[in-house]
Design goal:
With 173 residues, the chain is mostly helical. It has one domain (3-172): AhpD-like (Up-down Bundle), CATH 1.20.1290. The chain has helices spanning 3-9, 15-25, 32-46, 49-58, 64-89, 105-108, 114-128, 131-143, 148-172. It is globular.
């Protein structure tokens, strides 16, 4: 499935989502790997098969390592976002002071530029609503020299991919 075919599956009540998918694919604040990786990692995190298939086609120019890193970002953040969001929300204990005791080796050696992996993790953390992870990944990408505009672009990509996934899930129900 192509991106155009995916966009055509999005009904008129979600026309803004359809239009945003197209315009964000032309986003120029990010380099191609950062942009396509953010799309692909966000698709994996959202889990809609049509969105995943379309964005895998769109991200075909990514290296195999980058494709695997996008999957790894979705996998590790699906764990980390739940854990850190929960420990941050619960106020009855000192959970944030305890070690997580969860393996997260992929973050240290993701197979792509660390800044790109962190940017994808940030987009996924926005999708999953984890404030602690958003803050942590934002700090890493800022320290690596990314701008506010670049960070916003990744978050916008995550938001639109999430919306497309929600719409298509609603239509399939």
């Amino acid at each position: 499935m192509s991106l155009d075919q995916l966009r055509n599956k999005i009904p008129d009540y979600a026309k803004d989502v359809r239009l945003n998918l197209g315009s964000l694919m032309n986003e120029d604040a990010l380099n191609p790997q950062q942009k396509l990786g953010a799309f692909l990692a966000s698709a994996y995190a959202c889990g809609n098969p049509d969105v995943i298939r379309a964005l895998e086609v769109e991200a075909n120019e990514l290296s195999d390592d980058a494709k695997q890193a996008a999957k790894a970002a979705a996998a590790i953040m699906s764990m980390n976002n739940v854990y850190y969001r929960a420990t941050h929300i619960m106020s009855s204990g000192d959970y944030t002071k305890l070690p997580a005791k969860l393996r997260m080796n992929i973050i240290g050696s993701p197979g792509v530029e660390k800044v790109d992996f962190e940017l994808w993790s940030l987009a996924i953390s926005a999708i999953n609503g984890c404030a602690m992870c958003l803050d942590a990944h934002e700090q890493v990408v800022r320290n690596a020299g990314l701008t506010t505009t670049q960070i916003q672009a990744a978050i916008r990509i995550g938001a639109v991919v999430n919306a497309a996934s929600v719409v298509l899930n609603m239509e399939a129900a």
